[in-house]
Amino acid sequence: MPAGAQAAGLLGVDQGAQIVHLRRIRLIDGQPVPISDDWLPADRAAGLADLDWSVGDRSLYAELIGRFRLRPCRGRTGISARLATAPEAAHLLTGPPRRRPAGQADGL
Fold first, then answer.
1. Which CATH number fits the domain that encloses residue 89?
2. What pLDDT shows up at residue 18?
3. What pLDDT is recorded for position 41?
4. Number of helical (H) and strand (E) elements in the chain, helices listed first
């Protein structure tokens, strides 16, 4: 996907440069908790989004280090709370259907 102005500035790439977006539901003690969105420059992690992120406890940092020989040295994370969308709620499996909370973590 092409980087918008904000993502480009935060990632240090040109606006319109290709970036990778990963959206995952993270687990804590085996329970689905936050929804995680991560963006990375595509030229540094080609194929990252093609990995099966639903298996085991696959770690973004472990994949970046082991598969792509990248060692993240800094990042930016924003955390918020909101009501989950219907598809998110189905994965989170918490609360009554209309009031399922969702934790959101955005990482760059």
1. 3.40.1410.10
2. 95
3. 92
4. 3, 4
